[in-house]
Design goal:
Elements (H helix, E strand, L loop, with lengths): L17 H10 L3 H13 L3 H12 L2 E2 H8 L3 H13 L3 E6 L2 E6 L2 H14 L2
Antiparallel strand pairs: 1-3, 2-3
Helix pairs in contact: 4-5
Length: 121
C-alpha cells in the first residue's frame, strides 16, 4: 500500500450541507459505542495477536501449542490471549490441566478476511 506525501485537498469555499449532516447525526452511534469499536480495533493493531488469531483459524490449541508454533514463551502468549479474551475475540475451555483456545465466533474470521482484502487492493 503506497502512502502519498501530499496534503489532503480542502474545499475552496465553506458550504455546509445541512441535510447530509442531519442524516449523519441520525445514524451516528453513541460515543460509548464508538469508543468500544476503537478499542476493538486497537486489539487488531498487534502483529502477535494477529498471528495467534491465524493459528486459531486452523485449530483449537493450548498455550503450549501456540508458544511452540509462534516461537514465543508461554507467558508472552498468555498475556496476548488475556487481551484477546477480554475483547471477546477468543474463548477457552479447560480439559484437565490444559486450557484450549479457539476463535469466539465467525465474526473474527470475517474481520481479518476483510482487512486482508483491503490491504491487497
Amino acid at each position: 500500500m503506497e502512502i502519498k506525501d501530499r496534503e489532503p485537498e480542502c474545499c475552496e469555499t465553506v458550504c455546509v450541507h445541512d441535510e447530509i449532516l442531519a442524516n449523519v447525526y441520525r445514524e451516528m452511534p453513541a460515543e460509548e459505542e464508538l469508543y468500544d469499536l476503537a478499542e476493538l480495533f486497537k486489539v487488531f493493531g498487534d502483529s502477535t495477536r494477529i498471528r495467534i488469531l491465524f493459528v486459531l483459524f486452523e485449530a483449537e490449541v493450548c498455550v503450549c501449542d501456540l508458544a511452540a508454533i509462534l516461537h514465543m514463551t508461554q507467558s508472552s502468549i498468555s498475556h496476548q490471549l488475556r487481551i484477546l479474551k477480554q475483547s471477546k475475540l477468543v474463548t477457552s475451555r479447560r480439559e484437565g490441566k490444559q486450557v484450549f483456545y479457539s476463535l469466539a465466533d465467525d465474526h473474527v474470521r470475517t474481520i481479518i478476511a476483510q482487512g486482508r482484502e483491503h490491504i491487497e487492493e
